[in-house]
Amino acid sequence: MHAHRIQVKVYAAEPLPPERLIPVFHRWIRERVLDELAIDVADYGHVHEGPGVVLIGHSFDYFFEEIEGRPGLVYARKRDAPPPATRLADAVRRALSGARRLEQEPTLSGLAFRADELLVRVPDRLNARPDEAGFAALKSELEALGTTLFAGVTSIERVGGARDPLSARMKGSGAASVAELLARLG
User: Fold this and answer.
1) Per residue in 30-65, pLDDT tens?
2) How far is 8 from 167, CA to CA, in rounded Å?
3) pTM (predicted TM-score)
């Protein structure tokens, strides 16, 4: 798959008021916590089941969104993607890394993310068409990644319709935490 833009969502175990992330994201910018250039924070908490709070970066964004009515952290690669062979794994690693950082935030005590499900969206219609051929290519990459991430059965299902970006939900078992998933990615 040659898509440049990839989004990976790690689901939160419990809801969290998105506004609690605003000072955390501002601190990440000030202290240069991430290895990518973070620029600003935007609050879209007023949008029902919307993007929530967004940490805007030069080549990425982190959203704590509630789309689908399920809260979670989304890592979105916008530009400067790594080579095609490593793009998906890189986006998953960065999504899991962001989730792990949030779990470790003292001001967000109790925040946890699920280690059994990821949502992958590819909003790059030129390089990843939302049709059967596009899904087959994405599924092939997710299956390979799933064998690394999950010790148990991995299911991959297409989500969304023809008007939505190419999207797939990957479910697996055998990982107790986001930290364990990160360790498996190496």
Assistant:
1) 999 999 999 999 999 888 887 899 999 999 999 999
2) 10
3) 0.95
